[in-house]
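#structure-requests
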Amino acid sequence: MNKTLSRTLVVVVLASALGAAWYVKSRNAPPPPAPVVVEMVYELAPGDVMTLSNRPLTVGVPFTGSIKAVNSAVIKARVAGELMDLSVREGDSVRTGQVLARIEPTEYLRRLQQFKDQADAAKAQIDIAQRQFDNNKALVDQGFISKTALDTSLATLQGAQATHKAAVSAAEVAAKSLEDAVLRSPINAQVSARLAQPGERLAIDAKVLELVDLSRLEVEVPMSAGDVLGLRTGQTARVRVEGQDVPVPAKVIRINPSTQSGSRSVMVYLSLMPLPGLRHGQFVQGLIDTDQAQVLAVPLSAVRTERTQAYVQTLVNGKVVYRNVTLGPRGQSEGSNDTWVGISGADADSTIISGAVGSLREGLSVKVSAPPKAP
């Protein structure tokens, strides 16, 4: 028992000595190095920033609309029947008077012949009634028959003449129906839609083809009544078309005097140059020039709107700072194809980050790289 207790005391003494030695060593050891914090610096190209300054803007009314062909046509079946000889398809060019399709004409040919025969028969009855009337008139003059017989022959003659006129009119209507069985193009145009197929039985007024003439185009723009107040015919506009790098010039040519029944919008029409690539029904947007203004302005793309208040991203002492702004007039700046907007709430000569950069975190460190040196 004494030997076991002695061994236990030796182990405790050794453990205590080792712990004390480790404690003394840890206190004398140097402290661990502090963690190194590396701050991320976002680098921008010189073209990604601009200096806010006063600019002359051509102020206007923005709009969205669609391109319409001034001349268009819908080819419909004027008579019922089976469609024949339809060979044109979408994209084909047609000329004025060109035969585009036919309606099966047999029924209308037979009907025309029927009325012609009736007219010939009525003409023969007129000849007979005319001779009878002439004979009776001579007999009445000689006193051989009464005047009643002459009146009867006159009524017979007039009835034959009326029957002949009716038959002639019916033959003309049948000839018109036979002519309507041939579908012709009323304008020089291109086929935009083919709405029926050969062999199909068509009713009267059934649509067969749609034609558009791209040689004359205009833009149809729905606008609110308030926006139209500052518009006049002859004002210039710039129309942006998808696929066109440069805005297409246009001019206000007509303003509808009434509003649309459903939307209460006023239709404004702009003349448009027929350029390659423009299509009937194509969606466009643009700006109608109405005034000139000198304001602090930035490209519309530089204004951020994902928050409740519109803001711009500025660069202050190498940090991104958000500036809430109030938007003013929109327009075009000379030498730029972008839409610019006047702003208030940011200081002149402040550095504005371009909208092409996207959204940056506020407080982010930003460095603008130096422009490349000229060789």
